[in-house]
Amino acid sequence: MKKVEVIGIKKCFGNLVTLEDVSITLEENQFVSILGPSGSGKSTLFNIIAGLIRPDEGTVEIEGENVIGKTGRVSYMHQKDLLLPWKTILDNVSIPLILKGFPKKQARWRAGTYFELFGLQGFEDYYPAQLSGGMRQRAALLRTYMFSNDIMLLDEPFGGLDAITKRNMQHWLLRVLENLNASILFITHDIDEAIFLSDKIYVLSERPAKVKAVFDVNIPRPRNIKTFTSKTFNELKEDILNIL
Amino acid sequence: MKKLQSIGNRLLPIGFTSILLAIWEGMARKGFVQPNLLPAPTKIIHTLVTNFSLMGEHILITSFEAVAGFLISIAVAVVVSVLMDMMPMMRKTLYPMMITSQTVPMITLAPLFLIWFGYGYLPKIIIVILVCFFPITISLLEGLASVDQELLNLLRSMGAKKYQIYRLAKFPAAMPGFFSGLKIAGTYSIMGAVIGEWVGGKKGLGLYMIRVRHSFATDKVFAAILVITALSLLLLGIIRWMEIRLVPWKKYMFQQSEEEYDS
After folding, report:
1. Same domain flag for A64 and A112
2. Hey, of B158, B247, B259, B261, which one would you mutate to test binding to chain A, going by the most A CBs within 10 A of its CB?
């Protein structure tokens, strides 16, 4: 089943054409990466899918329903964790539920049940500033999951982390996703990351962004460190490098 | 090591002030200055203690005017800054007016208020409001605007309503700045009330100071100054205490870089 379908999106800011005819499909339980150079309008695309920006042309359908200009269906996770410094991790993660109208106590309880799965147990009452960058991103992902547990938009979520933490977080993300029924749209400019995590990769061109190529990643799961040195991985990497 | 340093930081101003006071005391006792021009610190304290019951009513009245004006200006500042934050038109219209209003010296307005509003509490409270309103509004306004645009987008993407965005993000983000504004305004508030009484009134520390000055009782003038300082510090202390209670995350925000450095 198609979870998200982006059809022929075009968006200009003034005279600057940012997105030109971008079409992307996300199937159920799929992990799809959007790979492209920085500043190619990938974040604009997410803002359009999240309903924050209206495109000039094209439509966005989520489970068959047109969601242009409608917020509240899917949320996204950002390179910055965007946790509220004045709320504890548990309260931060409960925010989506509270915005959906859950009573505070129930929201906390529901969010709390996921702390172990996300590797956050014991940190419920910490403030974000007391946590490392990697832990904060875990909390940010859990918050995104609490909002829309079937579709998550991840906008370079590990872009602000150091190389070692980033690698750990990629493995962590795959492990967590094994336990969730989630379809993921993932923005990155890191080719290794895209191949390691995804089922499908859309390569975007520089501004104005167009879909340059689509690759299927036929590497079996579960994936591990050996994936990075496998033959399929490197062949695919070469193909993508040739296109970029 | 750190503890030692913090004790040192406290001792330094206390020590320096003590030395200055000791010099002052010594000069007054040795007769370098005439005691009726500049009374010795011990004499001022003595006067304060013996006159305290006489000053009591004046202290209460000045405090009432200051606190009333301070609280009203907080209420007005919250309403005005939220309106200005929500409506750019409002901001563009009011901002220049507010800045300009601050260039008018309060001491020149005070006599006018006397003519317009009489000798009661009202003109004093209005002066306090005029003095306090500006720092509170500006700090709150800047605090409300300081929230990361990405964070606002994120909350909107989750379907947050406008009031929820204010409650979850904007007001808490504005708190540290708001309290800085409150501290400035709080210290001004007592001064504002005293200025109001100074130009004309029936009671209050300002009036008391005028009276004792006319009788050249400099020790009583100094005693009144001491009381005004103490009142301002007391108000400041209350604001600080509330800040610690209401902004408990502040300590973590500054602790962060240090911790990362340690590990």
Report:
1. no
2. B158
CATH number at residue A157: 3.40.50.300
The shortest CB-CB distance from A99 to any of B151, B153, B158 is to: B158
Q: Are strands A2-13 and A57-62 parallel, antiparallel or unpaired?
A: antiparallel
User: Domain containing A54: what range?
Assistant: 2-75+149-243
A216 and A107 fall within a common domain:
no
pLDDT at A180 > cutoff 70: yes
Mutate to test the interface with B, among A60, A62, A86, A141 (most CBs of B within 10 A): A86
Decide if A54 touches B, using CB distance below 8 A: no
Q: What is the pLDDT of residues A36-66, one digit of tens each?
A: 887 778 888 888 998 888 999 999 999 888 8
Contact between A139 and A90 (Cβ < 8 Å): no
Structure tokens belonging to residue A172:
């962590």
Contact check, Cβ <8 Å, A52/B157:
yes
Full-prediction pTM beyond 0.90?
Answer: no
Question: Which one of B147, B151, B153, B157 makes the best mutation probe of the A interface by having the most chain A beta carbons within 10 Å?
Answer: B157
In the structure encoding, which two tokens stand for residue B119, read together?
A: 């000798």
A54 and A88 part of one domain: no
Residues of chain B whose beta carbon is less than 8 angstroms from a beta carbon of chain A are 148, 150-151, 153-160, 164, 168-169, 172-173, 175, 247, 249, 252-253, 255-256, 259
Angle, CA of A30, A34 and A36, to the nearest 5°: 165
Domain termination site, one of A147, A170, A186: A147
Domains of chain B: 42-246 (1.10.3720.10)
Tens-place pLDDT, residues B83-142: 999 998 988 998 898 888 888 888 888 889 888 998 889 999 999 999 999 999 999 999
Q: Taking every pair of C-alpha atoms in chain A, what is the biggest distance, in angstroms?
A: 53
Number of Cβ atoms within 10 Å of the Cβ of A178:
9
Q: Which residues have C-beta within 8 Å of that of residue B178, sequence separation ≥ 6?
A: B136, B139, B140, B143
pLDDT at B82: 94
Residue A69 sits in the same domain as residue A154: yes
- ipTM attached to this prediction: 0.84
Q: Which residues of A touch B156 (CB under 8 A)?
A: 52, 71
Q: Give how many domains chain A has, as a whole number.
A: 2
A107 and A6 in a single domain? The answer is: no
Q: pLDDT band for position B256 (50/70/90)?
A: very low
Chain B residue with CA closest to A97: the answer is B158
Q: How far is A125 from chain B (nearest CA, A)?
A: 12
How many Å apart are CA A41 and CA A43, to the nearest integer?
Answer: 5
Residue B258 has pLDDT above 80, yes or no: no
Are A33 and A197 in contact by the 8 Å Cβ rule? The answer is yes
When CB atoms are compared, the residue of A52, A78, A85 closest to B249 is: A85
